[in-house]
Design goal:
alpha/beta, seven-stranded mixed sheet, 16 helices, binds pyridoxal-5'-phosphate
């Protein structure tokens, strides 16, 4: 068995002390203040407001990995010191993930390469193969493509449940009444309900434990996409009661301050037990001859063929351990305060529409806010925030096209785009929004910088419009007509490598 009993973290410090600890961590992320040139000829530090795409690397965990790398060796070697130290540390990384998400012993944590996308694709394949008689999956209309397309690919039928509208007519959580009806309707044929814990478009949080309990009533499973929520909210796989336990949870290391780390599937062990692993090779077999091979029954080894991404896994383990000690309740409180501050400030801007429910009492939100300005396209706003103010945000559809179109009013309640989709959703003028999203490092001054910049854009839209042109490649993006900042002028991989080699050249005698 790979799992060891990790020493439980020491008893948590008082809540106020942990909030203070967040203050001490804020500045300790790589790339937080990187200077970039601006269109007005100045250079300034960036303001990073794109954490929903990927957040920045936590230096504390990086230091832990540097220490570990003194011992680096392959976990498939066994008897020398380095190999034994790495094997043990790798086990600790698995166990830390399991503890971080509050998973019981019935669950395993599997590192699986390509983030939540890899995890959900694998789980859709596994669950379709395990229970072929159950050929329906239910998901919602607020999903990232990663929690929609794999189910379409591997299930016979996928039902998309609509969302609740709040009293202002804005989209909130999944509509629990419609979900209950869909679950009952598909009963015996329902394999699983796949739902996001928090939307990457509106930031709205779903009641995943309530959903798990409903799915379990008909013998179906609950698969949770925690890509967006993991860095922002506490998560408990076990739930408050056995029928609320989540069967599968997937998360991405690059969205929880550990870029370069693998994704993780935390899932019930029995889901893999009778399943031939998708990937076979070294590290997972007990016996091999030219005729047969026997795969180990041990999890997670059985599902992790090949040499693991050890630095990435250790980075994730160290990051989660530190976050666990700070406490995700403190992280959540910190971010809620900043999100409320940002919502109020953005709401006060004339000509700005925020998408999704603003009512916390019916739709809790994480620090993800999407909006449009009435006078300017999303691609122009995003480029101008970068070029004139050094503010990094994301635009377009955030890999959630059905949801974004619906929020923009160019798809029906079932998420279907009109067949004569012309201007509003043509490839020349891709619809979209602008998204601001927060990490632990963001402060009110970052929000103020964004609000001031947006004020400037709304006060003189024509001035900006004259300086930009659409790229015209189907992305909905715009570029400055004159200002250019070629990426290679700031960082060039080959040049950086050559510089290192030159600086370390042998001195001629
Ligand atoms: N699910 C949600 C809600 C996301 O926001 C994302 C990425 O943005 C994903 C899934 C996919 O994550 P990854 O790109 O790490 O596979």
């Amino acid at each position: 068995m790979l799992h060891t009993q990790n020493a439980a973290p020491p008893a948590p410090a008082p809540f106020a002390a942990r909030r203070q600890q967040i203050e001490a961590l804020r500045g300790q992320f790589t790339g937080l203040n990187t200077p970039y040139p601006r269109a007005d000829g100045t250079t300034g530090p960036r303001v990073y407001l794109d954490s929903a795409a990927s957040n920045l690397r936590f230096q504390g965990a990086e230091a832990v990995v540097d220490e570990a790398m003194q011992h680096y060796a392959n976990t498939h070697s066994h008897l020398h010191h380095g190999a034994r130290i790495m094997t043990e540390a790798y086990k600790q990384a698995h166990e830390t993930v399991r503890q971080f998400v509050g998973a019981p012993e019935t669950h395993t944590a599997i590192f699986c390469g390509t983030g939540v996308t890899g995890g959900l694709n694998r789980m859709a394949r596994v669950l379709a193969a395990q229970r072929p008689e159950r050929d329906v999956a239910i998901t919602t209309l607020m999903e990232h493509h990663a929690n929609d397309l794999p189910h379409r690919k591997h299930m016979r039928e996928v039902v998309h449940v609509p969302l609740e509208m709040d009293p202002d007519g804005n989209a909130g959580r999944v509509d629990m009444h419609a979900l209950r009806t869909a679950i009952k309707e598909h009963g015996d044929r329902l394999n699983y309900v796949a739902v996001t814990a928090a939307s990457n478009v509106t930031g709205v949080v779903n009641p995943v434990h309530e959903i798990a309990a409903l799915a379990h009533e008909v013998g179906a499973l609950c698969v949770v996409d925690a890509a967006q929520s993991a860095a922002h909210l506490p998560i408990s796989v076990a739930g408050a009661a056995p029928n609320e336990a989540l069967d599968v949870v997937c998360l991405s290391g690059h969205k929880i301050y550990a870029p370069g780390s693998p994704g993780v599937i935390i899932a019930r062990k029995d889901l893999f037990e009778r399943h031939e692993p998708e990937v076979v090779g070294g590290g997972i077999v007990e016996f091999v001859d030219a005729k047969r091979y026997d795969v180990t029954p041990s999890l997670p080894e059985r599902e992790e063929a090949g040499t693991p991404n050890l630095p990435g896994s250790l980075l994730l383990g160290a990051t989660l351990r530190i976050l666990q000690r700070v406490g995700m309740d403190a992280v959540e409180a910190d971010e809620q305060a900043l999100t409320q501050y940002a919502m109020s400030a953005l709401n006060a801007l004339p000509g700005l529409t925020i998408y999704g429910s603003h009512r916390l009492e019916v739709a809790e939100r994480i620090g993800v806010i999407t909006f449009n300005l009435h006078d300017l396209p999303h691609g122009l706003v995003t480029a101008a925030l970068n070029d004139y103010f050094g503010i990094a945000v994301r635009n377009e559809c955030f890999c959630a096209q059905p949801f974004v179109r619906q929020l923009l009013g160019i798809a029906d309640a079932k998420g279907i785009a009109p067949s004569d989709c012309t201007d509003a959703c043509s490839t020349r003028a891709q619809p979209g929004m602008v998204r601001i999203s927060f990490g632990l490092y963001n402060t009110e001054s970052d929000v103020d910088a964004a609000v001031e910049a947006l004020q400037d854009l709304t006060s003189r839209p024509d001035w900006y419009r004259e300086r930009y042109r659409p790229v015209g490649d189907g992305s909905g993006d715009w570029v400055h007509t004159e200002f250019e900042a070629p990426p290679a002028a700031q960082f060039d991989l080959l040049d950086a490598s050559d510089r290192w080699l030159d600086a370390n050249a042998p001195t001629s005698s």
